[in-house]
Amino acid sequence: MFINLCDTTGAALEHLGMALGWDPVQPRRFGGRTRDIDLNAAALLFAGTQIIDVVYHEQLSSRDGSVRHLGDSMTGEGKGDNEVVTVDLTRIPPQVDTILFLVTSYTGQSFDQIDNAFCRVIDSTSGTEIAHYNLSGGAHTGLVMGKVVRAANFWRFEPLGATIHAQHPVEAVPHMAPFLTTPQTSSDT
């Protein structure tokens, strides 16, 4: 089910965000080391089935600056959103027709080992939440949260909530094919 990215007046949204949050690992009661949990928020930009750009903790901005990662949290410390990816829909290159929002567990913990993990898509201008997922639970290490798809005069969001096994966005790329549209050829029109 697609959601048209429009505000209450029907105007197309211009700024979108994907936010990710989780609780840090609690110290063990009787000592022993605990391994921090490092989740990653990412945006993968595609033209048809061809990957064009990736924004994540190791590349904080798309080449054109339209998509930005606002900083890497390696522990989940702090309240609320720990990582945020922003998208300026007015600046997305014309060949990009799909943006996939992705969460991966960089340190390898499955989501059933992570407390109070969530991700959400928001209208960055108004703060209105468009979609929200509780991530805690399940034996997977990644989630394709949703996709933003270019329509005629606006963008649409489709919540996906598809689980994958990947610890890094680069490992996730081969899993993205089912969520992409194939480019149309002249015989398709």
Q: Can you give a write-up of this model?
A:
The chain is mostly beta strands and 189 residues long. The protein has 1 helix and 11 strands, in the order βββββββββββα. The protein has one helix at residues 169-172; strands at 3-4, 15-21, 39-47, 50-55, 67-69, 83-88, 98-105, 118-123, 129-134, 142-150, 155-164. The strands form 2 sheets. A 6-stranded antiparallel β-sheet has the order 1-11-10-7-3-4, with no helix packed on it. β3 and β4 (50-55) form a beta hairpin. The longest helix is centred in the last third of the chain and has 4 residues, at 169-172. Mean pLDDT is 85; it is low at 183-189.
Helix content: under 10%
Largest sheet: 6 strands, antiparallel
Number of DSSP helical runs: 1
The order of strands across the largest sheet is 1-11-10-7-3-4
Radius of gyration: 17 Å
Proportion in β-strands: 35-45%
Keywords:
Lipoxygenase-1, disordered C terminus, 189 residues, 11 strands, mainly beta, five-stranded antiparallel β-sheet
Please sum up the structure shown.
With 189 residues, the chain is an all-beta fold. It has one domain: Sandwich (Lipoxygenase-1), CATH 2.60.60.30. It has one helix at 169-172; strands spanning 3-4, 15-21, 39-47, 50-55, 67-69, 83-88, 98-105, 118-123, 129-134, 142-150, 155-164.
